[in-house]
Records
---
Amino acid sequence: MSQQIGKAYYGLPWEYDKGEEVAVMFQTDRRVVEQLLPPVLSPPEGPAMGVVMAAHHRRSTFGPYVGVYLGVVALHAGRTVLHRLTGMKTSFSGAAGGREAWGMPLDVGDAGMEWSGDVLNIIARRHGNDFARLAVRLERRTEQPASWFTDMTSVVERQPWDQGEKRKLLLGTGVRPADPKDMIFWKGSSVLKLVGGDPGDDWSVLPVQEVIETRFSFGGQSALTGPHVLEEF
């Protein structure tokens, strides 16, 4: 019996048939970013940047679902990474798997993506409270753009029974990317509001000063192949 109640989600790789995906880079407060990053990461020179990503997976190891994620651009050992701050998925198994295998800061919520005329409305909501709202309009098709970062990171703490001297791990994300020949890419414009949902929640800590770039893609098949340890601290 391969499917068991209460099982862990370590059966990698995790496969995805990709639908609509949106990535928005925005300028934010550098002082806030410095406070949020673990000591092994630092913000790059220049304005601090945050990123909101939203994805509709038409099919996946965890079934179809929508996910919305928030992170900041950082440096690790001279490489540009996206450090995850928070996120929510409509799939419990997807959220649980991300937390177990990667330490991703995920929760289950009412994330949604819906077209209204020529605008794609994206929302991250839980218990009737809005945490993030994003409205996207497509402008023109493009070639595949260069990636903003070389890895995506998260922090996990060692289990209490693990006697390693350093208690935290910075993890990177193994990815098998989709073939760009199976995808379409658009440049767009957007309005982003990180409104927060609960007092002290982790969606409201980053102010949105200015939207810098909006990207849209559709299609392709990708996979997450496993986490890897970048540094102990």
---
Amino acid sequence: MSLRNDADFVTGVKTSKIIPKNTDGSTALPYPGKTEVVAFSGLGPFDFSGASAMTAVPMTIKNNTVTETKTVDVDAASASISAVTVTELIAAITTAAFTGVTASVDARGYGELLISGGDAETDYMQVYGECATISEFGYGYGLQFIQLDTQKSFPMIPTNVDDETIETVDSNGKKTKVITPGYRDGLTATLVDSAVDNELRALLTGGSWNPTTKEFVAPLDDAVRPLLSIETLSLKYLKATNQKGDYIGAKLTRAFNMSSKEDSSGTGDNNFQDMSYSFTGTPYTNPETSVRYGDSMTRDYTVAQYNALNYGDI
């Protein structure tokens, strides 16, 4: 409905969340039709020889706003600490006994962590820490949101295949024409960030970031940029003049299957330096079922629903 008296007016992006996809290609975000709150490791074997403590490798699992951190004794479960199999990894995680989490090896050979009794269309799951990165959750970055509220802009714009016209002209000069309708085939997005976040920069470019030494190293030409899922959240207001706190709800936009690249790390002039990244999104295909979904979705929340999310704590 677009009559002014009943219309909702949406602000620019208030906050954003960016997370790697699962290593099997599935999205960690909720979406209609999703059946499990699940995260996947890589296929292994995994080299834990450089872990800080092989008998107590830290790992965190976050179910919505509830965070649980434990240590995983990989050494006790494995025959070779430099070549830990998925089966051995899952045995070690099972022994660590995370609350409400079932660990198993799925039919394709990935390590699978499942939140028992979770609502797959609304719940979020994150898996991170040293054990998660070594075992390639989130392409080795850890399956963890990077949150930002320093964006200047973060528009998502549909991309479309144009209408196609086929025509012929006969000897009498009469034209016959068929117009085949175009269609949407994805979306693009551009993030302009007013702050410098090198952890985000590493995730979006395939580079590396060492939080101890504070060093960002740009990627080589063979670097793998992880595929991403993105959420943006905006607030909704009624017509006329509103106070900032008068919002009547929120709009959440999710894009499931995005690639990214760095466009600019600043202009170098005598000013604050903005970071700029661009994204390309395509429709999402569930890798287990081959069911296809649109490239993105939006969901509207009332104030009560938005407050109940504790969105800033997810």
